[in-house]
Amino acid sequence: MRFTATGIVTNEYNQLLLIQRSDTKTWTAPAGEVVKGELPTETVTRLVEEKTGIKTMPIRLVWATYWAQSNDPHLHLIFRCLQRGGEAKPTSEALISRFLSAEELPQPMRKVHQKRIEMAVYHDGQAEWLTEQPTIMQSLSSRLINRGASPATMWTANCISIISDEENLVAVDAQQQLPSGRCRDLEAPWDAAPRLTKTAVGRPIEPGRLSGIYLSRKQPHITFVFRTPKPAGLTHPHWLPPTTVALPEGAKSLDFITADDVVTEIDYWGEN
Question: What is the pTM of this model?
Answer without folding.
Answer: 0.93
